[in-house]
Structures are given as C-alpha cells and as structure tokens.
Design goal:
10% strand; Beta Polymerase, domain 2; alpha+beta; Serum Albumin, Chain A, Domain 1; 54% helix; two-stranded antiparallel sheet
Length: 443
C-alpha cells in the first residue's frame, strides 16, 4: 500500500481543530496522536481523535475552559483530561514517559517530558507511534508510516519490554494483525510468545474486550492457526484442547466466516471459538470475560443444541414439527432469539460437516432444515404463548377457568395447535377454536 507522506489539514474534524487551536492559542504545543493518525494514513480517518501536548494537564484544562470547552478530569494522575466538543470526546495527555509496570498494566509512575518524540517512544507499536499536525505535518521517529505501508506490526524499541509493561499488548498485536491482515515482525512475534504467560496477570474482562475485537476482524481462523501459543495463554479453556481438536477448530472457524460471507453475528463467532469445548467450559470463560448476558445465553443455547439436536440430522426425514421444536427450544434458552440462533446453528453444522466429512444424508438434512427454517420464519409463527393473539385472560373467560396451572397448559396446547398448522394465529379463528374444543382443552 502506498502511504501519503503527510495528511491534508482538511481531514481533521472541526471539533478536534477547535481543541487544538485552543491549546496553541494559549501558547502550548499539541499534536494529534494514536489511532486517528494511523487510520487516516490508510485512508480511513474515522478513529476517535487523541492529542498529546507539552502543557501540564491543569494548564490544558485552563486553556480549554477559557475557550468555552467542556473538560473532564479523566486520568490526571497520568496527565490526561478529556475535552468534549459537539458531544465528541477528545483525550489530551501531557507528554510523558513511564516507569516500570509492576502490575503489567499501569506504570508505577510517569515522568512528564518536553518533546513529542519522548512521548512517542513509550507507545506500543510503530504504527501507533506517529503524531501529526495540520501545519507541521507528520512526526514519525520509529518508521510507523513505512511499517503501515508494508503491513507490519512491530513493537517500538525492545518488544519484550513493551509487553512486560502491559501484557495486554500481546493480544493487541494479534488484533491489529488480524484487523489489517498484517504480518507480525519476527522479533515482535518471538517476544509475543515468550511473554504470553504474563496474560494470566491481566484482568479477564480486558482479555474479553481484546478477543471481541479479534472476533470482529473476521479472521479468527487465522489467529487460531498462527497465534496458538498466545490464544491458549489468554483463555485457559482453549489450552485444554488436543492437537487434533485445535486443528479442527482452526478449520471450522475459518469455514464459518466464509459460509456466512463475513457477516457472522458475534454470538456465532464466540460459539465457533468454543465449539471444541464443553458447554460448561464455554459458559465459565464467557462469564469470566464479562461478555454480555445475551451473548452468553446465545452461545450456551447454540452449543447445547449442537449436541442435543444431533439426532435430527440422522433421521431419514426431517419434519416441520421437529424443526419448529428446535426453534422453540432455542427461543426458550435464549429468551427471544429462536430463529436467528437456528440459522446460526445450521452454519455451525455446515462447517462441521466439511471438517468431519459428514455423510451425504446428514448434509441433505442440513439443507432441508435450512429450507424449513426459511419457510417457518416467513410465516411469523408464534414461538411462545405470549405471542398468540389470544390472551390467557380471554382463554380463561371463554373456558370459565380459574387462575392456575391449567391456564398455562391450555395456552401451551393452543400454541401447539397453531404451530402444527391446525389453526391460524388469528383472533377470530382462535376464539372459534377454543369454543369448539373446550372439552379437549380443559380435560
């Protein structure tokens, strides 16, 4: 990729220019740093804007407030404040260097310095260690622009030192490589693997955040294949897998992404990651990494049905009723995602059928299930009593029932008749059905 030597001043959003001008009008120096510079050089200046300045944070705060800009003291111990313009947050950090990292996450202390070059020297990778100014142009002391053009992830300075400072940078390297389809510099790769054990010292929720971003890159298969040591160190459940399980996991993860055309929901990607683990292991890992409740429920449902519904694939004929039962069960377990999860389960089966070389009969059944799912989805069938157009109160009145378990049994039977095609989910038809079958419903 050909990289421009600098960037057009017009790329900087007006809200960011206002903050930069406020600092410089007060006599301070400021630069745009971090992800915005990296992505703008790639032609995608959509990243949040961060700045670095030689102004002590209190002076930055004063200059910004005098310019009528809202300011929040978000990290003053490390020299960071956040300005907000047009509801857009901009972090401004005083030039600094950092000491040792006893907890492998936060510097024990910071030293405020005078130059942007000194500040850039503390950053993780060369592609993130560039600064830009709309007048002074690009500041690139570590060759980040060249590495960006060549597609290389390279640590700034000594890679082991960078990873020892914050072990999460190990996963960040994998994430950037996956996101941009870059390669990792050999010395940096060697340090990744050597330092990977330090990931055990990182908070699980931070690991979960980075893994989420790796999954979003659509290159989970690549990460599993080429960063096995790192991912096994990051997630203890993955370290339990045998060599064969790992090889199948790599292939399956790549296939799922390909079969879904790169449009996999995050639930399916997490299910793919843990498809060789037990449901309990997946559940423990996801909860430990503080994933959203709906994601955990969805992955649990997919992995449970992946095993429980296997007999459906062995049948000589797959019926509408059996497929609807599958959807209903997924709906119950996920509390509202029956159809989306059913299609995701089919994609899991399709990938596994290729990896494990399933029989032609099983593959035909997968195709049949997918066709029936499409038809059922189009019919907008109710999957639970609450989705019936006839309420429980109306059924009680029609059948002269008192509140109690019997009402629930009646509603479930009505639902069964609707999903079986005996009656439509139409109010008048359901009223007529209840009246005509009162004896059977209340027996």
């Amino acid at each position: 990729m050909t990289m421009p030597k600098t960037l057009s001043p017009g790329l900087l959003p007006a809200y960011a220019m206002r903050v930069l001008s406020a600092l410089e009008d007060a006599g301070w120096e400021a630069w745009i740093v971090g992800g915005w510079v990296r992505d703008a050089l790639r032609g995608d200046p959509a990243h949040d804007v961060d700045m670095a300045s030689n102004a002590p944070w209190k002076k930055s705060e004063q200059a910004l407030r005098e310019a009528g800009i809202d300011v929040h003291e978000t990290g003053t111990a490390h020299g960071t404040i956040t300005a907000v313009v047009d509801d857009k947050p901009i972090e401004i950090t005083t030039y600094r260097t950092e000491s040792t990292y006893s907890d492998f996450r936060h510097p024990d202390s910071v030293t405020f310095v005078d130059t942007i070059e000194q500040d850039l020297s503390r950053r993780d990778f060369t592609i993130n260690a560039m600064a830009w100014h709309p007048i002074r142009g690009l500041k690139d002391p570590f060759g980040g622009r060249k590495d960006l053009a060549a597609g290389i992830i390279r640590a700034v300075g000594d890679p082991q030192k960078r990873f020892h400072e914050d072990a999460l940078r190990i996963l960040r390297a994998v994430r950037f490589a996956a996101r941009y389809s870059f390669v990792i510099d050999p010395e940096t790769q060697q340090a990744l693997e050597k330092c990977s054990g330090e990931l055990a010292l990182i908070a699980s929720e931070r690991i979960g955040q980075e893994l989420n971003r790796i999954l979003e890159s659509k290159r989970l298969g690549w990460a599993l294949k080429y960063e096995r040591i790192v991912l096994r160190a990051a997630v203890s459940e993955l370290a339990k897998l045998s060599k064969q399980q790992w090889e199948e996991l790599c292939e399956e993860a790549s296939l799922i992404e390909a079969l879904a055309g790169g449009l996999c929901p995050q639930t399916l990607r997490w299910a793919a990651l843990f498809s060789q683990n037990t449901v309990k292991e997946a559940q423990n890992a996801l909860k430990r990494m503080a994933q959203r409740t709906e994601v955990v429920a969805g992955v649990e449902a997919l992995l449970m049905e992946n095993e429980a519904a296997a007999d459906l694939l062995e049948r000589k004929s797959v019926t509408r009723e059996k497929v609807l039962n599958l959807v209903s069960e997924l709906e119950r377990m996920s509390k509202g995602s029956g159809f989306p999860l059913s299609f995701q389960l089919v994609e899991l089966w399709q990938a596994r059928s290729i990896v494990e070389r399933w029989t032609d009969e099983r593959r035909r059944n997968i195709a049949t299930i997918k066709t029936l799912l499409t038809e059922l989805c189009a019919e907008k069938l109710p999957l639970k009593p609450a989705e019936l157009v006839l309420s429980g109160c109306e059924a009680m009145e029609l059948l002269k029932l008192e509140p109690g378990p019997k009402v629930g049994n009646v509603m479930n039977e009505i639902l069964h008749q609707v999903t079986a095609g005996a009656v439509s989910n139409n109010h008048d038809e359901l009223v007529s059905f209840v009246r005509n079958h009162a004896a059977e419903l209340t027996d």
